[in-house]
Design a protein that fits this description.
The chain has 13 helices and 16 strands. The chain is α/β, with parallel strands linked by helices.
Length: 432
């Protein structure tokens, strides 16, 4: 008797770290439900977790869905994520094999249905997309994302949605209003990951610093609870991207007092160093506030590493305003700058402006920011030479320092462990 073949799936992830955590969750849940992971060309179901933050991201999303359809003539392609919320009809028109499911908590069920064609519904839950997307995903304990198929650093989503409305961004429309997972669920998930051997857990959210509970419990309180619950495991925690206005005294003290169990690294989006441009971006701070915050962080946590995002060529940005950004980036001593040219996103106020910056100017400014990033990153690592940091060992002789530098590690050390290493300039690797 020939045993029936298990259904096979592939997950294609686009966009932010929150999407990455969600995609890993799809993979773990489908594997737990009897699916085998496979290349898209061999899959029965391909899940595409989309991004639509910029015009360029939107193009990449459309290409990814078309590529998944071409990879297999028979696979069902489940489209989820931000682009599925903003324009579901666009994907449904691509093929009868496309299922659009904006609610990420239902993606696994849609994939299960796709293996039973008579029960398939093409539209998923589009009619219910006014609810917080994925909000009810916390009703069930997530499958553990551990093992060779998953990143060594495990992400835990603690928050979703955003109440801000930056003039270049449509994520607040796609993700909806901010909401936070109950702290007991987060602590239980993180503790389970730590007991399973995960040694770095990354807290993620669309607007992570807005995490709060009805009793006023905030991100710093959550971090202290996580440290207490996982104390015997030695696991450390990393705070992913956090808005400048959300870095309060309690969080700074938690960073200062945790002895590295909360990584002394923050990704602090600047976006522009000109107060005028920040105002037009509808960012809720000015250049002076940002610089003062960076000084406070360095004063209280001298070894801190700060990375950032900067948009080059926002509509109306002059040469003088761009030079203000370059000056502030230097003053902040960033360890890495994620620089990218402004990309018009239809439906945002910035996209409708008549004073768009020429592509050639945006390209040149982006190149200058990336060159500055390389310079500052090298300087940040050089000042750490001779100090010792705990390094998370990853694959192929690579490891990630607490300060978020990628370094060479002994190849014989098992991936997933934390080891103390004295940093040397010859250890530094180019990526991260």
């Amino acid at each position: 008797m020939v045993e029936a073949r298990r259904p096979r799936f592939a997950v294609v992830n686009l966009g932010c770290k929150v999407n990455r955590v969600e995609s890993d969750g799809f993979q773990a849940s489908l594997a737990a439900r009897g699916f085998d992971v496979a290349p898209a060309a061999q899959a029965d179901v391909v899940v595409v977790n989309t991004c639509t933050v910029t015009g360029e991201a939107e193009k990449k999303t459309r290409k990814a869905v078309r590529r998944a359809l071409r990879a297999s003539e028979n696979a069902t392609v489940v489209v989820t994520g931000c682009a599925a919320v903003i324009d579901p009809a666009e994907f449904l028109e691509m093929s009868a094999r496309v299922v659009v499911e904006p609610d990420k908590s239902k993606v696994v069920d849609v994939a299960l249905d796709a293996t039973a064609p008579d029960e398939r519904t093409r539209v998923g839950s589009i009619e219910s997309s006014s609810a917080p997307h994925g909000a009810n995903a916390s009703n069930a304990a997530p499958a553990l994302r551990v093992g060779a198929a998953f990143p060594t650093r495990a992400g835990v989503k603690v928050q979703d949605g955003c109440n801000n409305a930056c003039s270049y961004c449509i994520v607040h429309v796609a993700r909806g209003r901010a909401w936070s997972r109950p702290r007991a669920e987060i602590v239980a998930e993180a503790a389970a990951l730590a007991r399973a051997g995960v040694r770095e857990i990354v807290l993620t959210g669309i607007n992570l610093g807005s995490y709060r509970q009805p009793d006023g419990y905030r991100l710093a309180d959550l971090l202290r609870a996580l440290l207490a619950e996982t104390d015997s495991t030695g696991a450390r925690f990393r705070v992913s991207s956090i808005e400048p206005r959300d870095v309060d005294d309690a969080l700074i003290e938690a960073l200062a007092e945790s002895d590295g169990r909360i990584c002394r690294h923050l990704h602090l989006p600047l976006q522009a160093g000109s107060t005028k441009v920040l105002h037009e971006m509808r960012r809720p701070y000015d250049a002076e506030f940002f610089e003062r915050l960076v000084d406070r962080l360095h004063d209280r946590v001298p070894s801190i590493s700060l990375s950032t995002d900067i948009i080059a060529g926002f509509p109306g940005e002059t040469d003088v305003e761009f030079e203000e950004t370059m000056r502030l980036a230097r003053a902040c001593r960033f360890s890495k700058i994620h620089a990218f040219p402004y990309s018009r996103r239809k439906g945002t106020p910035a996209a409708a402006r008549a004073d768009q910056v020429a592509d050639a100017v945006k390209t040149e400014r982006t190149a200058r920011l990336l060159a500055l990033s390389d310079e500052l990153r090298e300087a940040d690592f050089d000042r750490r030479a001779g100090t010792t940091e705990l390094v998370l060992v990853e694959a192929d002789g690579r490891g990630m320092t607490e300060s978020y530098h990628e370094v060479a590690v002994p190849t014989e050390v098992q991936a997933g462990v934390l080891i103390p290493l004295k940093l040397d300039t010859n250890m530094r690797l180019g990526g991260d």
